[in-house]
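Supplementary notes (optional reading)

For those who missed the lab, this is the record we used. Protein: FAD-binding PCMH-type domain-containing protein. Length: 573 residues.
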Amino acid sequence: MGSESLYSMDAAPYPLSDLPNIMAAESAAPCRFVPGDAGWPLANEWNMLNSSIGGRLIETVPLAQVCFEPNFDADACELVQTQYNDIQPRIDDSASIVSAYFANDSCNPFLADDGYTCTLGNIAPYAVNVSDASDVVAGINFARDHNLRLTVKNTGHDFLGRSTGRGALELWTHYLDTIEFYNYTSAHYTGPAVRMGAGIQSFEVSEAAQKQGLRVVGGFCPTVGVAGGWLQGGGHGPLGSKYGLGVDNVLEFDVVTVDGKHLVATPTNNEDLFWALSGGGPGNFAVALTVTLKAHPDGPVAGAQWVMLNTDNDAFWKALDIWLKHLLILDLIPGLSINSAFNEQMFILNYASWPDATAEDMSAALAPFLEEIKDLPVEFTVYETAVNPTWRDHFEHFTNFGYDTHNTNGGRLIPRALVRDHRTDLLATFRRIVTNTTAGVGMIGGNYTYLNTGATPGSNPVNPAWREALFSINILIEMAIDAPWTVARDDLAEMNGYQDQLRALTPGGGTYMSEATYNNLHWKEDYYHPEVYQKLLEIKHKYDPQGLLWASAAVGSDEIWTLQDDGRLCTTT
Protein backbone atom coordinates (compact mmCIF):
# COMPACT_ATOMS: atom_id res chain seq x y z
CA MET A 1 0.00 0.00 0.00
CA GLY A 2 1.40 3.42 -0.91
CA SER A 3 2.02 5.88 1.88
CA GLU A 4 -0.26 8.87 2.36
CA SER A 5 0.84 12.24 3.71
CA LEU A 6 -0.33 15.88 3.43
CA TYR A 7 -3.23 18.66 3.49
CA SER A 8 -7.05 20.20 4.00
CA MET A 9 -9.29 23.75 4.21
CA ASP A 10 -12.47 26.27 4.04
CA ALA A 11 -14.48 29.47 2.78
CA ALA A 12 -17.71 31.80 2.93
CA PRO A 13 -19.86 34.32 0.96
CA TYR A 14 -21.48 35.86 4.00
CA PRO A 15 -20.68 39.29 5.42
CA LEU A 16 -17.32 39.23 7.16
CA SER A 17 -19.06 40.35 10.35
CA ASP A 18 -20.83 36.99 10.43
CA LEU A 19 -17.66 34.93 10.12
CA PRO A 20 -16.78 34.68 13.83
CA ASN A 21 -20.20 33.14 14.53
CA ILE A 22 -19.83 30.79 11.59
CA MET A 23 -16.41 29.67 12.75
CA ALA A 24 -17.63 29.24 16.31
CA ALA A 25 -20.15 26.73 15.01
CA GLU A 26 -17.46 25.00 12.98
CA SER A 27 -14.97 24.83 15.84
CA ALA A 28 -16.69 21.70 17.15
CA ALA A 29 -15.00 19.91 14.25
CA PRO A 30 -11.24 20.29 14.84
CA CYS A 31 -10.37 19.01 11.36
CA ARG A 32 -11.75 19.53 7.89
CA PHE A 33 -13.81 16.54 6.86
CA VAL A 34 -12.43 13.95 4.45
CA PRO A 35 -14.18 11.01 2.74
CA GLY A 36 -15.17 8.42 5.31
CA ASP A 37 -15.87 10.93 8.08
CA ALA A 38 -19.39 11.00 9.48
CA GLY A 39 -19.62 14.66 8.52
CA TRP A 40 -18.64 14.13 4.87
CA PRO A 41 -21.42 15.45 2.58
CA LEU A 42 -24.05 12.94 1.49
CA ALA A 43 -24.58 12.09 -2.17
CA ASN A 44 -27.74 14.18 -2.38
CA GLU A 45 -25.85 17.20 -1.04
CA TRP A 46 -23.22 16.87 -3.76
CA ASN A 47 -26.04 16.50 -6.27
CA MET A 48 -27.64 19.72 -5.04
CA LEU A 49 -24.34 21.55 -5.48
CA ASN A 50 -24.02 20.13 -8.97
CA SER A 51 -27.52 21.28 -9.89
CA SER A 52 -26.90 24.76 -8.51
CA ILE A 53 -23.92 25.27 -10.83
CA GLY A 54 -25.46 23.81 -13.97
CA GLY A 55 -23.87 20.36 -13.79
CA ARG A 56 -20.31 21.69 -13.53
CA LEU A 57 -19.25 19.56 -10.55
CA ILE A 58 -16.63 16.94 -11.45
CA GLU A 59 -16.10 13.82 -9.37
CA THR A 60 -12.43 12.93 -9.54
CA VAL A 61 -11.34 9.79 -11.35
CA PRO A 62 -7.56 9.33 -11.08
CA LEU A 63 -5.84 9.29 -14.46
CA ALA A 64 -4.19 5.96 -13.72
CA GLN A 65 -7.31 4.18 -12.44
CA VAL A 66 -7.34 2.20 -15.69
CA CYS A 67 -4.13 0.47 -14.56
CA PHE A 68 -5.80 -1.06 -11.49
CA GLU A 69 -8.51 -3.63 -10.95
CA PRO A 70 -11.48 -3.59 -11.25
CA ASN A 71 -11.04 -0.89 -13.92
CA PHE A 72 -7.99 -2.34 -15.68
CA ASP A 73 -7.76 -1.57 -19.39
CA ALA A 74 -4.43 -2.57 -20.95
CA ASP A 75 -4.54 -0.12 -23.86
CA ALA A 76 -5.72 2.80 -21.76
CA CYS A 77 -3.12 2.01 -19.10
CA GLU A 78 -0.34 1.96 -21.68
CA LEU A 79 -1.42 5.41 -22.87
CA VAL A 80 -1.39 6.76 -19.30
CA GLN A 81 2.08 5.33 -18.72
CA THR A 82 3.33 6.83 -21.98
CA GLN A 83 2.03 10.28 -21.04
CA TYR A 84 2.70 10.11 -17.30
CA ASN A 85 5.73 12.37 -17.44
CA ASP A 86 3.96 14.93 -19.66
CA ILE A 87 2.60 18.09 -18.12
CA GLN A 88 -0.32 18.96 -20.39
CA PRO A 89 -2.49 15.87 -19.68
CA ARG A 90 -2.31 16.73 -15.99
CA ILE A 91 -3.21 20.35 -16.65
CA ASP A 92 -6.21 19.28 -18.72
CA ASP A 93 -7.44 16.97 -15.95
CA SER A 94 -9.44 18.61 -13.18
CA ALA A 95 -7.58 17.15 -10.22
CA SER A 96 -4.16 16.02 -11.46
CA ILE A 97 -1.11 17.92 -10.29
CA VAL A 98 2.45 18.42 -11.51
CA SER A 99 4.20 17.12 -8.39
CA ALA A 100 5.27 13.57 -7.61
CA TYR A 101 5.58 14.32 -3.91
CA PHE A 102 2.03 15.57 -3.48
CA ALA A 103 0.58 12.94 -5.84
CA ASN A 104 1.95 10.56 -3.20
CA ASP A 105 1.75 7.31 -5.21
CA SER A 106 -1.97 7.18 -4.44
CA CYS A 107 -2.54 5.96 -8.01
CA ASN A 108 0.80 5.44 -9.78
CA PRO A 109 0.39 3.48 -13.05
CA PHE A 110 3.86 1.96 -12.72
CA LEU A 111 3.22 0.49 -9.27
CA ALA A 112 0.00 -1.39 -9.99
CA ASP A 113 1.81 -4.74 -9.88
CA ASP A 114 3.73 -3.96 -6.68
CA GLY A 115 0.92 -4.27 -4.16
CA TYR A 116 -0.19 -0.65 -4.43
CA THR A 117 -3.82 0.38 -4.81
CA CYS A 118 -5.50 3.29 -6.56
CA THR A 119 -6.90 5.85 -4.14
CA LEU A 120 -7.40 9.61 -4.14
CA GLY A 121 -4.74 10.26 -1.51
CA ASN A 122 -4.07 14.01 -1.53
CA ILE A 123 -6.04 14.64 -4.71
CA ALA A 124 -9.26 16.65 -4.38
CA PRO A 125 -12.31 14.33 -4.62
CA TYR A 126 -14.48 16.97 -6.32
CA ALA A 127 -13.85 20.00 -8.50
CA VAL A 128 -16.07 22.88 -9.55
CA ASN A 129 -15.43 23.61 -13.22
CA VAL A 130 -15.59 27.37 -12.79
CA SER A 131 -17.30 29.36 -15.54
CA ASP A 132 -18.01 32.61 -13.67
CA ALA A 133 -18.08 34.28 -10.26
CA SER A 134 -21.29 32.52 -9.21
CA ASP A 135 -19.60 29.12 -9.49
CA VAL A 136 -16.85 30.33 -7.17
CA VAL A 137 -19.41 31.65 -4.67
CA ALA A 138 -21.26 28.32 -4.74
CA GLY A 139 -18.05 26.42 -4.10
CA ILE A 140 -17.06 28.72 -1.25
CA ASN A 141 -20.51 28.34 0.32
CA PHE A 142 -20.50 24.57 0.06
CA ALA A 143 -17.01 24.14 1.48
CA ARG A 144 -17.81 26.41 4.40
CA ASP A 145 -21.19 24.90 5.16
CA HIS A 146 -19.80 21.35 5.09
CA ASN A 147 -16.47 21.98 6.82
CA LEU A 148 -14.41 21.10 3.75
CA ARG A 149 -11.05 22.24 2.63
CA LEU A 150 -11.12 24.49 -0.44
CA THR A 151 -8.36 24.71 -3.04
CA VAL A 152 -7.85 26.66 -6.25
CA LYS A 153 -6.25 25.15 -9.35
CA ASN A 154 -5.60 26.60 -12.76
CA THR A 155 -2.84 24.27 -14.00
CA GLY A 156 -1.61 22.36 -10.94
CA HIS A 157 1.86 23.59 -11.85
CA ASP A 158 2.74 24.02 -8.19
CA PHE A 159 5.77 22.55 -6.42
CA LEU A 160 4.32 23.36 -2.99
CA GLY A 161 1.10 21.41 -3.49
CA ARG A 162 -1.08 24.48 -2.98
CA SER A 163 -3.62 23.53 -5.67
CA THR A 164 -4.76 20.23 -4.16
CA GLY A 165 -5.45 18.60 -0.82
CA ARG A 166 -6.94 15.56 0.82
CA GLY A 167 -10.71 15.84 1.00
CA ALA A 168 -10.74 19.22 -0.72
CA LEU A 169 -13.35 20.81 -2.93
CA GLU A 170 -11.35 22.34 -5.74
CA LEU A 171 -12.19 25.47 -7.70
CA TRP A 172 -10.84 24.63 -11.16
CA THR A 173 -10.33 27.74 -13.28
CA HIS A 174 -8.79 26.01 -16.31
CA TYR A 175 -11.64 26.94 -18.65
CA LEU A 176 -11.61 30.62 -17.80
CA ASP A 177 -9.76 30.96 -21.07
CA THR A 178 -10.68 34.32 -22.58
CA ILE A 179 -8.00 36.67 -23.92
CA GLU A 180 -8.77 40.30 -24.77
CA PHE A 181 -6.32 42.96 -25.95
CA TYR A 182 -7.27 46.60 -25.59
CA ASN A 183 -5.92 50.06 -24.83
CA TYR A 184 -5.75 50.59 -21.08
CA THR A 185 -5.96 54.01 -19.46
CA SER A 186 -5.33 54.80 -15.81
CA ALA A 187 -3.35 57.16 -13.63
CA HIS A 188 -0.60 54.55 -13.43
CA TYR A 189 -0.42 53.28 -17.01
CA THR A 190 -1.74 54.09 -20.45
CA GLY A 191 -1.04 51.72 -23.29
CA PRO A 192 -1.74 48.25 -24.69
CA ALA A 193 -2.92 45.63 -22.23
CA VAL A 194 -4.30 42.11 -22.15
CA ARG A 195 -7.08 40.81 -19.92
CA MET A 196 -6.92 37.04 -19.63
CA GLY A 197 -8.90 34.40 -17.81
CA ALA A 198 -7.37 32.63 -14.84
CA GLY A 199 -6.92 29.43 -16.83
CA ILE A 200 -4.69 30.89 -19.53
CA GLN A 201 -1.23 29.36 -19.86
CA SER A 202 1.88 31.27 -20.78
CA PHE A 203 2.15 29.82 -24.29
CA GLU A 204 -1.49 30.70 -25.02
CA VAL A 205 -1.13 34.39 -24.28
CA SER A 206 2.16 34.42 -26.22
CA GLU A 207 0.39 33.03 -29.30
CA ALA A 208 -2.45 35.51 -28.99
CA ALA A 209 -0.13 38.46 -28.43
CA GLN A 210 1.92 37.64 -31.51
CA LYS A 211 -1.18 38.04 -33.67
CA GLN A 212 -1.61 41.54 -32.25
CA GLY A 213 2.02 42.52 -32.82
CA LEU A 214 2.61 42.41 -29.06
CA ARG A 215 4.48 40.47 -26.41
CA VAL A 216 3.51 39.76 -22.80
CA VAL A 217 5.59 38.57 -19.87
CA GLY A 218 5.23 34.92 -18.92
CA GLY A 219 7.06 32.00 -17.38
CA PHE A 220 10.20 30.18 -18.42
CA CYS A 221 8.01 27.10 -18.73
CA PRO A 222 5.33 27.63 -21.41
CA THR A 223 2.63 25.67 -19.57
CA VAL A 224 2.48 27.71 -16.35
CA GLY A 225 -0.83 29.38 -15.59
CA VAL A 226 -0.23 33.11 -15.76
CA ALA A 227 -2.83 34.26 -13.22
CA GLY A 228 -2.13 31.73 -10.49
CA GLY A 229 1.03 30.81 -8.62
CA TRP A 230 3.25 32.34 -11.29
CA LEU A 231 1.89 35.90 -11.12
CA GLN A 232 0.68 35.89 -7.52
CA GLY A 233 4.06 34.52 -6.44
CA GLY A 234 5.99 37.24 -8.27
CA GLY A 235 6.48 35.73 -11.71
CA HIS A 236 9.95 35.66 -13.23
CA GLY A 237 10.50 34.91 -16.89
CA PRO A 238 12.74 35.40 -19.93
CA LEU A 239 11.40 38.90 -20.62
CA GLY A 240 12.26 39.97 -17.09
CA SER A 241 15.32 42.07 -17.87
CA LYS A 242 13.26 44.00 -20.40
CA TYR A 243 9.96 44.45 -18.54
CA GLY A 244 10.41 43.21 -14.97
CA LEU A 245 8.64 40.56 -12.94
CA GLY A 246 5.09 39.56 -13.73
CA VAL A 247 3.87 41.68 -10.83
CA ASP A 248 5.72 44.69 -12.24
CA ASN A 249 3.33 44.40 -15.20
CA VAL A 250 0.00 43.69 -13.52
CA LEU A 251 -2.73 46.33 -13.83
CA GLU A 252 -5.77 44.74 -12.21
CA PHE A 253 -7.30 41.58 -10.78
CA ASP A 254 -10.92 40.48 -11.12
CA VAL A 255 -11.58 38.33 -8.05
CA VAL A 256 -14.10 36.76 -5.69
CA THR A 257 -13.39 37.21 -1.99
CA VAL A 258 -14.40 34.79 0.76
CA ASP A 259 -17.46 36.88 1.64
CA GLY A 260 -18.78 36.27 -1.87
CA LYS A 261 -18.03 39.72 -3.27
CA HIS A 262 -17.00 40.07 -6.90
CA LEU A 263 -14.35 42.80 -6.90
CA VAL A 264 -11.93 44.52 -9.24
CA ALA A 265 -8.65 45.34 -7.55
CA THR A 266 -6.29 47.98 -8.98
CA PRO A 267 -3.68 50.35 -7.52
CA THR A 268 -6.53 52.80 -6.77
CA ASN A 269 -9.52 50.50 -6.14
CA ASN A 270 -9.38 47.87 -3.39
CA GLU A 271 -5.72 48.78 -3.50
CA ASP A 272 -4.68 46.78 -0.45
CA LEU A 273 -6.06 43.60 -2.02
CA PHE A 274 -4.37 44.47 -5.32
CA TRP A 275 -1.09 44.89 -3.48
CA ALA A 276 -1.41 41.53 -1.69
CA LEU A 277 -2.28 39.67 -4.88
CA SER A 278 0.71 41.21 -6.67
CA GLY A 279 3.25 38.78 -5.28
CA GLY A 280 1.96 38.00 -1.78
CA GLY A 281 1.24 34.37 -2.60
CA PRO A 282 -1.50 32.47 -4.47
CA GLY A 283 -4.72 30.85 -3.26
CA ASN A 284 -4.77 32.84 -0.04
CA PHE A 285 -6.38 36.29 -0.38
CA ALA A 286 -9.08 35.84 -3.05
CA VAL A 287 -9.94 33.69 -6.07
CA ALA A 288 -8.81 35.26 -9.34
CA LEU A 289 -11.14 35.14 -12.35
CA THR A 290 -9.12 37.37 -14.69
CA VAL A 291 -5.93 39.40 -14.57
CA THR A 292 -4.87 42.34 -16.73
CA LEU A 293 -1.23 42.82 -17.68
CA LYS A 294 0.67 45.36 -19.71
CA ALA A 295 1.39 44.32 -23.30
CA HIS A 296 4.46 45.51 -25.15
CA PRO A 297 5.29 46.10 -28.84
CA ASP A 298 6.75 42.99 -30.44
CA GLY A 299 9.80 42.74 -32.65
CA PRO A 300 12.91 40.65 -33.26
CA VAL A 301 14.53 38.78 -30.39
CA ALA A 302 18.10 37.50 -30.34
CA GLY A 303 18.88 34.23 -28.61
CA ALA A 304 21.66 31.79 -27.87
CA GLN A 305 22.14 28.33 -26.43
CA TRP A 306 24.91 25.83 -25.90
CA VAL A 307 25.79 22.53 -24.27
CA MET A 308 29.26 22.11 -22.74
CA LEU A 309 30.23 18.62 -21.59
CA ASN A 310 32.30 17.89 -18.51
CA THR A 311 35.19 16.06 -20.17
CA ASP A 312 37.79 17.46 -17.77
CA ASN A 313 36.51 18.15 -14.26
CA ASP A 314 39.00 20.85 -13.32
CA ALA A 315 38.47 22.68 -16.62
CA PHE A 316 34.70 22.30 -16.28
CA TRP A 317 34.59 24.01 -12.88
CA LYS A 318 37.04 26.65 -14.00
CA ALA A 319 34.71 27.46 -16.91
CA LEU A 320 31.77 27.74 -14.51
CA ASP A 321 33.77 30.09 -12.30
CA ILE A 322 34.51 32.27 -15.32
CA TRP A 323 30.83 32.15 -16.34
CA LEU A 324 29.73 33.42 -12.93
CA LYS A 325 32.13 36.33 -13.28
CA HIS A 326 30.81 37.16 -16.74
CA LEU A 327 27.19 37.01 -15.57
CA LEU A 328 27.91 40.19 -13.62
CA ILE A 329 28.89 41.85 -16.90
CA LEU A 330 26.03 40.42 -18.96
CA ASP A 331 23.61 41.62 -16.26
CA LEU A 332 24.46 45.20 -17.21
CA ILE A 333 23.18 44.81 -20.78
CA PRO A 334 19.65 46.28 -20.94
CA GLY A 335 17.03 43.66 -21.76
CA LEU A 336 19.32 40.59 -21.78
CA SER A 337 18.12 37.62 -19.71
CA ILE A 338 20.24 34.50 -19.18
CA ASN A 339 18.89 31.06 -18.27
CA SER A 340 21.74 28.60 -17.69
CA ALA A 341 22.11 25.36 -15.77
CA PHE A 342 24.57 22.64 -14.88
CA ASN A 343 24.91 19.27 -13.26
CA GLU A 344 27.90 17.01 -12.84
CA GLN A 345 27.89 16.04 -16.51
CA MET A 346 27.29 19.27 -18.42
CA PHE A 347 26.84 23.03 -18.42
CA ILE A 348 23.95 24.34 -20.52
CA LEU A 349 22.95 27.76 -21.68
CA ASN A 350 19.28 26.80 -21.93
CA TYR A 351 18.66 30.05 -23.72
CA ALA A 352 19.56 33.69 -23.61
CA SER A 353 16.88 36.20 -24.62
CA TRP A 354 17.60 39.72 -25.84
CA PRO A 355 14.57 41.55 -27.24
CA ASP A 356 15.19 44.02 -30.06
CA ALA A 357 18.79 42.84 -30.58
CA THR A 358 20.52 40.95 -33.41
CA ALA A 359 22.35 37.64 -33.52
CA GLU A 360 25.54 39.66 -33.96
CA ASP A 361 24.75 41.59 -30.79
CA MET A 362 24.32 38.32 -28.92
CA SER A 363 27.55 36.85 -30.27
CA ALA A 364 29.43 39.99 -29.28
CA ALA A 365 27.99 39.87 -25.75
CA LEU A 366 29.07 36.26 -25.23
CA ALA A 367 32.45 36.60 -26.96
CA PRO A 368 34.45 37.75 -23.89
CA PHE A 369 33.42 34.61 -21.97
CA LEU A 370 34.26 32.35 -24.88
CA GLU A 371 37.59 34.10 -25.33
CA GLU A 372 38.52 33.55 -21.69
CA ILE A 373 37.79 29.81 -21.80
CA LYS A 374 39.25 29.14 -25.26
CA ASP A 375 42.37 27.44 -23.88
CA LEU A 376 40.44 25.20 -21.49
CA PRO A 377 39.88 21.58 -22.59
CA VAL A 378 36.08 21.90 -22.70
CA GLU A 379 33.80 20.50 -25.40
CA PHE A 380 30.71 22.17 -26.87
CA THR A 381 28.25 19.76 -28.51
CA VAL A 382 25.72 22.52 -29.24
CA TYR A 383 26.36 26.19 -29.87
CA GLU A 384 23.93 28.56 -31.55
CA THR A 385 23.05 32.21 -31.76
CA ALA A 386 20.03 33.28 -33.76
CA VAL A 387 17.46 36.02 -34.17
CA ASN A 388 13.74 35.40 -34.61
CA PRO A 389 11.19 37.92 -35.90
CA THR A 390 8.87 37.81 -32.86
CA TRP A 391 8.95 36.90 -29.19
CA ARG A 392 6.85 33.78 -29.71
CA ASP A 393 9.10 32.57 -32.52
CA HIS A 394 12.15 33.06 -30.32
CA PHE A 395 10.57 31.27 -27.36
CA GLU A 396 9.50 28.26 -29.41
CA HIS A 397 12.88 28.10 -31.15
CA PHE A 398 14.84 27.93 -27.90
CA THR A 399 12.46 25.98 -25.65
CA ASN A 400 12.01 22.82 -27.69
CA PHE A 401 12.83 20.64 -24.68
CA GLY A 402 10.44 18.83 -22.36
CA TYR A 403 9.37 19.70 -18.83
CA ASP A 404 8.67 16.61 -16.78
CA THR A 405 6.60 16.05 -13.67
CA HIS A 406 8.75 13.84 -11.45
CA ASN A 407 11.35 16.14 -9.98
CA THR A 408 11.82 17.89 -6.66
CA ASN A 409 12.48 21.63 -6.80
CA GLY A 410 13.98 24.20 -4.48
CA GLY A 411 15.94 27.40 -4.76
CA ARG A 412 17.49 30.60 -3.51
CA LEU A 413 17.93 34.15 -4.80
CA ILE A 414 21.65 34.82 -5.28
CA PRO A 415 22.64 38.47 -4.82
CA ARG A 416 25.11 40.21 -7.08
CA ALA A 417 27.33 40.99 -4.09
CA LEU A 418 27.82 37.28 -3.33
CA VAL A 419 28.94 36.52 -6.88
CA ARG A 420 31.16 39.60 -6.93
CA ASP A 421 32.82 39.16 -3.55
CA HIS A 422 32.48 35.49 -2.56
CA ARG A 423 32.29 33.59 -5.83
CA THR A 424 34.64 30.86 -4.56
CA ASP A 425 32.29 30.03 -1.67
CA LEU A 426 29.28 29.92 -3.98
CA LEU A 427 31.05 27.67 -6.47
CA ALA A 428 32.15 25.31 -3.70
CA THR A 429 28.53 25.01 -2.56
CA PHE A 430 27.39 24.34 -6.12
CA ARG A 431 30.02 21.65 -6.42
CA ARG A 432 28.84 19.91 -3.24
CA ILE A 433 25.25 19.97 -4.45
CA VAL A 434 25.84 18.27 -7.81
CA THR A 435 28.80 15.94 -7.09
CA ASN A 436 27.70 12.30 -6.96
CA THR A 437 24.02 13.29 -6.96
CA THR A 438 21.18 13.53 -9.48
CA ALA A 439 20.76 17.24 -8.72
CA GLY A 440 21.04 20.00 -11.28
CA VAL A 441 21.34 23.72 -10.63
CA GLY A 442 19.53 26.28 -12.76
CA MET A 443 20.74 29.88 -12.70
CA ILE A 444 17.75 31.87 -13.94
CA GLY A 445 18.87 35.42 -14.49
CA GLY A 446 17.03 38.68 -14.91
CA ASN A 447 17.75 42.27 -13.97
CA TYR A 448 14.84 43.03 -11.62
CA THR A 449 16.44 46.02 -9.91
CA TYR A 450 14.22 48.97 -9.09
CA LEU A 451 16.24 51.07 -11.52
CA ASN A 452 15.75 48.65 -14.39
CA THR A 453 12.08 47.78 -13.84
CA GLY A 454 10.72 51.12 -12.68
CA ALA A 455 9.29 49.47 -9.58
CA THR A 456 9.79 51.22 -6.26
CA PRO A 457 10.37 49.83 -2.75
CA GLY A 458 7.02 48.63 -1.43
CA SER A 459 5.20 48.91 -4.77
CA ASN A 460 4.48 45.19 -4.50
CA PRO A 461 5.12 42.60 -1.80
CA VAL A 462 7.71 40.41 -3.55
CA ASN A 463 10.71 39.78 -1.36
CA PRO A 464 13.11 42.73 -1.77
CA ALA A 465 15.86 40.15 -2.31
CA TRP A 466 14.57 39.96 -5.90
CA ARG A 467 15.86 43.46 -6.54
CA GLU A 468 19.40 42.53 -5.44
CA ALA A 469 19.54 39.11 -7.13
CA LEU A 470 21.82 38.35 -10.06
CA PHE A 471 19.86 35.16 -10.60
CA SER A 472 17.41 32.80 -8.94
CA ILE A 473 18.74 29.33 -8.23
CA ASN A 474 16.37 26.53 -9.18
CA ILE A 475 17.73 23.22 -7.90
CA LEU A 476 16.16 20.15 -9.44
CA ILE A 477 16.56 16.57 -8.24
CA GLU A 478 15.65 14.05 -10.90
CA MET A 479 13.44 11.14 -9.95
CA ALA A 480 12.65 8.04 -11.98
CA ILE A 481 9.08 8.02 -13.22
CA ASP A 482 8.42 4.61 -11.64
CA ALA A 483 10.13 5.38 -8.33
CA PRO A 484 8.03 4.99 -5.17
CA TRP A 485 6.95 7.97 -3.08
CA THR A 486 9.64 7.32 -0.49
CA VAL A 487 12.18 8.54 -3.05
CA ALA A 488 10.31 11.84 -3.38
CA ARG A 489 10.20 12.12 0.42
CA ASP A 490 13.96 11.60 0.68
CA ASP A 491 14.59 14.00 -2.21
CA LEU A 492 12.59 16.69 -0.42
CA ALA A 493 14.71 16.30 2.70
CA GLU A 494 17.83 16.50 0.55
CA MET A 495 16.50 19.64 -1.14
CA ASN A 496 15.90 21.37 2.17
CA GLY A 497 19.51 20.58 3.04
CA TYR A 498 20.71 22.23 -0.17
CA GLN A 499 18.59 25.28 0.58
CA ASP A 500 20.13 25.48 4.05
CA GLN A 501 23.61 25.58 2.50
CA LEU A 502 22.60 28.42 0.19
CA ARG A 503 20.84 30.26 3.01
CA ALA A 504 24.07 30.22 5.01
CA LEU A 505 25.75 32.04 2.11
CA THR A 506 22.96 34.62 1.80
CA PRO A 507 21.85 35.72 5.29
CA GLY A 508 18.83 37.97 5.18
CA GLY A 509 18.15 36.95 1.59
CA GLY A 510 15.21 35.20 0.01
CA THR A 511 13.76 32.52 -2.25
CA TYR A 512 11.28 32.60 -5.11
CA MET A 513 8.23 31.19 -3.34
CA SER A 514 6.99 29.28 -6.41
CA GLU A 515 10.26 27.37 -6.84
CA ALA A 516 10.68 26.25 -3.27
CA THR A 517 9.71 23.63 -0.70
CA TYR A 518 6.46 23.63 1.23
CA ASN A 519 8.03 22.51 4.52
CA ASN A 520 10.93 24.96 4.66
CA LEU A 521 11.19 25.92 8.33
CA HIS A 522 12.31 29.42 7.31
CA TRP A 523 9.50 30.08 4.86
CA LYS A 524 8.39 33.40 6.35
CA GLU A 525 11.85 34.94 6.03
CA ASP A 526 12.74 33.24 2.75
CA TYR A 527 9.54 33.72 0.76
CA TYR A 528 8.52 37.10 2.15
CA HIS A 529 10.30 39.68 4.32
CA PRO A 530 9.50 40.54 7.96
CA GLU A 531 7.99 43.96 7.23
CA VAL A 532 6.26 42.74 4.07
CA TYR A 533 4.88 39.70 5.86
CA GLN A 534 3.34 41.78 8.62
CA LYS A 535 1.54 44.03 6.15
CA LEU A 536 0.32 41.01 4.18
CA LEU A 537 -0.93 39.43 7.40
CA GLU A 538 -3.00 42.52 8.17
CA ILE A 539 -4.59 42.28 4.71
CA LYS A 540 -5.21 38.56 5.21
CA HIS A 541 -6.99 39.33 8.48
CA LYS A 542 -9.10 42.01 6.78
CA TYR A 543 -10.31 39.93 3.83
CA ASP A 544 -10.17 36.45 5.35
CA PRO A 545 -10.12 36.79 9.15
CA GLN A 546 -10.84 33.12 9.83
CA GLY A 547 -8.42 31.62 7.34
CA LEU A 548 -11.05 30.23 4.99
CA LEU A 549 -8.46 30.14 2.22
CA TRP A 550 -5.38 28.13 3.16
CA ALA A 551 -2.19 27.16 1.36
CA SER A 552 1.11 25.80 2.58
CA ALA A 553 3.76 28.40 3.43
CA ALA A 554 1.16 31.14 2.83
CA VAL A 555 0.63 34.28 4.88
CA GLY A 556 -1.25 33.35 8.05
CA SER A 557 -1.15 29.63 7.28
CA ASP A 558 0.21 28.78 10.73
CA GLU A 559 -2.40 30.70 12.73
CA ILE A 560 -5.55 28.57 12.57
CA TRP A 561 -4.81 25.40 10.61
CA THR A 562 -2.02 22.82 10.68
CA LEU A 563 -1.31 20.25 8.01
CA GLN A 564 -1.17 16.79 9.57
CA ASP A 565 1.06 13.94 8.43
CA ASP A 566 -1.97 12.10 7.06
CA GLY A 567 -2.91 15.03 4.82
CA ARG A 568 -5.73 16.40 6.96
CA LEU A 569 -6.03 20.05 7.85
CA CYS A 570 -6.74 20.44 11.56
CA THR A 571 -6.95 23.34 13.95
CA THR A 572 -3.67 24.57 15.37
CA THR A 573 -3.27 23.55 19.00
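If you only remember one thing from this example: The chain has three domains: 16-172+534-571, 179-297, 301-527.
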